[in-house]
């Protein structure tokens, strides 16, 4: 049976997949960092990680933890000094990288974590380790976990990441059969933009479909709020989160005389925070739009000037395109509040 415990008030390993991201502000700038933490929490983050590269960042942890709406994780590299300060100032979880940390430093950190009951994520990245294969990456992570267990601590989360999608998936597949600790999954250094999202989605999604993973981060260069948005979309795509508005749309063809792509994108944006299972179809013509979208709760079969509004496969009205969106959003509003 998988081990489970709490990070603050957030359970890990209990079957619910938690979402996390990481701030990219100077941690010692409390106001700037708190503003980003709040944005991440508002977007749906369950946990937020902050880098602790120096003493002033470690001491800033006290105020950050006191004012944060979600539990905070301290990201530690190279030594134990900043980790110990962060622990003493209330950090709720630590991430350590055994690839750049001595055994003595790990021993000191573990001792302090036991004293303050702070869980540890053993995060092994291929780029900062001697591992040359997914198997070696998984073994290094498990060996480190065993060393920490021998020191008397077992509130651990394990992670093995590479910037290569296939290597990452294989490493986690190996790790998942070697341990019963909760696993944090993601693709490190995935890049920026569309390519990074695709790579991360394939890695994280394929693991989740195999039942591997307890907490996720979609690591993207840039605004971390995007990480939370894409993480939520991955959970929805693999069927873990079903309480959302799904927008389906036809691929368009020469018959299309309605702005399908723009309409679908607008609806997705407007319904992002509606937490009820609703399916909306955006179809590009009236020839077979209702039939193709009959499994949707409601939708549009678009025309050049007027479009058909339908519900459960049945035509409701034919209305001018200028009025279609307000009426559709009224249906969403009504449906989302129905019991």
Describe this entry's structure for a reader.
This protein is an alpha/beta fold and 339 residues long. It is 41% helix and 20% strand. The strands form three sheets. It has an eight-stranded parallel β-sheet. A hairpin with a 2-residue loop joins strand 14 (306-311) and strand 15. Helix 2 runs parallel beside helix 3 (81-88) and helix 3 packs parallel to helix 4 (103-116). The longest helix is centred in the middle third of the chain and has 17 residues, at 134-150. The chain starts with a strand and ends with a helix. The mean pLDDT is 92.
Short description:
This protein is of the alpha/beta class and 339 residues long. It is built from eleven helices and 15 strands.
Keywords, separated by commas or semicolons:
339 residues; alpha/beta; TIM Barrel; Sulfite Reductase Hemoprotein, domain 1; eight-stranded parallel β-sheet; five-stranded mixed β-sheet; 11 helices
Gyration radius (Cα, Å) is 23 Å
Binned strand content: 15-25%
Q: Please provide the ordered H/E string of secondary-structure elements.
A: EEEHEHEHEHEHEHEHEHEHEHEEEH
Number of strand segments: 15
SSE order and pairing:
Elements: E1 5-7, E2 10-12, E3 18-22, H1 30-43, E4 47-51, H2 55-67, E5 72-76, H3 81-88, E6 93-96, H4 103-116, E7 120-125, H5 134-150, E8 156-161, H6 165-176, E9 184-185, H7 193-209, E10 215-216, H8 225-237, E11 245-249, H9 260-270, E12 278-283, H10 289-292, E13 298-301, E14 306-311, E15 314-320, H11 321-337
Parallel strand pairs: 3-4, 3-10, 4-5, 5-6, 6-7, 7-8, 9-10, 11-12, 12-13
Antiparallel strand pairs: 1-2, 13-14, 14-15
